[in-house]
Design brief:
By secondary structure, this protein is an alpha+beta fold. The chain has 3 helices and 6 strands. Strands 1, 2, 3, 4, 5 and 6 form a 6-stranded mixed beta sheet that branches. This is DUF4031 domain-containing protein. InterPro entries: DUF4031.
Length: 87
Amino acid sequence: MILVDEPLWPARGRLWSHLVSDSSYEELHVFAEMLGAPRRAFDRDHYDIPDMRFRSALWLGATLLPSRELAARLRAAGLRRPKHLNR
């Protein structure tokens, strides 16, 4: 399942959301491509998507979750890649 949080994270003059999969990175990459997110937006275990793509992500079927729940689901799926591990 593809999950997204609200665009609340400020950077580069806009707000950003996190887009993740609780199934596989393959599923995430396919969804991100359909959304039009460039591969360079992938950061270890998620895509950073700008607020202008948030509604499209929901329309394509992403499930909206609070940020904490999104992170918990990512960890539970074994797909979390923290910065300090550099995997």
